[in-house]
From TrEMBL:
Annotated family: Belongs to the LysR transcriptional regulatory family.
Protein name: LysR family transcriptional regulator
InterPro entries according to UniProt: LysR_HTH_N (IPR000847), LysR_subst-bd (IPR005119), WH-like_DNA-bd_sf (IPR036388), WH_DNA-bd_sf (IPR036390)
GO molecular function: DNA-binding transcription factor activity; transcription cis-regulatory region binding
Domain HTH lysR-type residue range list: 5-62
Key words, A-Z: DNA-binding, Transcription, Transcription regulation
Keyword hit for Signal: no
Gene3D superfamilies assigned: Periplasmic binding protein-like II (3.40.190.10), Winged helix-like DNA-binding domain superfamily/Winged helix DNA-binding domain (1.10.10.10)
Organism name: Kocuria tytonicola
Length: 307
């Protein structure tokens, strides 16, 4: 081969393999379809073998394309590591690496400290500023440029930002041990939960948005509280049921001060990093997202999340 293959074309090839078609791969790397077709044609000429099987139904990888993709994946990973490392070296001329993080309450209270500890062990001189909001306000921080990266619990990825899943979480229905539901064995139906006044987080919180979406309608709120802790204390006082992240109530469940009630509703959700600017984060933001994905908590039980 007389010259090196184009890295952007290799990244596109990997995306085609990961997303199932040239069109989907082009969207994943934010490349226009005509440019993607030309890029793949140049790559095929460069490596000397056909990589795509083209048809009226779209383009998929040939057997040779699958093999080349396997080799290309390590090249793309190494190139990303080079770019991220160089960004870290040049991020701050004073030698101090800095990062502004905005995080939802559940993430900030239960996950972010572990992620930051991992980053600081690799970059002990780094400086990180953390702001805690609900998910709606985290997105606004990112869009307005007051945060380099945000972490949210919203069920639907917001528009105008790049995003990546970093962990998965589970919402659970909890009550006081003396509540009538505490002894239930049959799951609470969706209709029953929708008709029951609950103690909830405020509008704009990821937990509230996830619950509203799962119910298919706004929750019937008996009390709206500004924090997970306030909701938990209100339930422990015997006020009413609540739906909270397992992360926020696992200690109370273990201590017996709250009881989990089975529910028909599927309340699993994804936690995401969000940012603006280049599609791929660089510097400390990239390191923090990678650390979050390495140690992502599954459903609060320690199962890692694949990047």
């Amino acid at each position: 081969m007389s010259h090196w293959p184009d890295l952007a074309a290799l990244e596109l090839l990997v995306a085609v393999a990961d997303h199932g078609s040239l069109a989907a791969g082009a969207r994943a790397v934010e490349m226009a379809q005509p440019n993607a077709s030309r890029s793949m044609a140049r790559l095929e000429r460069s490596v000397g073998v056909p990589l795509l099987q083209r048809s009226t139904r779209g383009s998929t990888l040939t057997p040779a394309g699958l093999l080349v993709t396997d080799w290309a994946r390590s090249v793309v990973t190494a190139a990303r590591r080079l770019v991220d490392g160089a960004a870290l070296l040049g991020q701050d001329a004073s030698g101090t690496l800095s990062l502004r993080v905005s995080a939802s309450q559940t993430v900030a209270e239960h996950l972010l400290p572990r992620w930051l500890a991992g980053v600081r062990s690799a970059f002990p001189d780094s400086r990180v500023q953390v702001t805690v909001h609900n998910s709606h306000d985290v997105v606004q921080d990112v869009l307005h440029g007051t945060a380099d990266v945000g972490f949210i619990e919203s069920p639907k990825p917001p528009s105008g930002v790049h995003r990546a899943v970093v962990a998965r979480d589970e919402l659970v229905l909890v009550v006081h041990p003396q509540h009538p539901w505490a002894a239930r064995h049959d799951p609470v139906s969706t209709a029953e939960l929708a008709a029951t006044p609950l103690i909830t987080r405020e509008a704009g919180s990821g937990t509230r948005m996830a619950l509203d979406e799962a119910l298919g309608r706004p929750v019937e709120a008996l009390l709206e509280m500004p924090s997970n802790a306030a909701v938990r204390v209100s339930v422990q006082a015997g006020s009413a049921p609540a739906v909270l992240s397992r992360l926020a109530v696992e200690d109370a469940l273990a201590a017996g001060t709250l009881v989990q009630v089975p529910a028909v509703l599927d309340l699993h959700r994804e936690l995401r990093a969000v940012w603006i600017g280049p599609r791929r984060t660089q510097g400390l933001a990239a390191e923090l997202i990678a650390e979050a994905q390495r140690t992502g908590c599954g459903s609060a039980r320690g199962r890692p999340v694949a990047p």
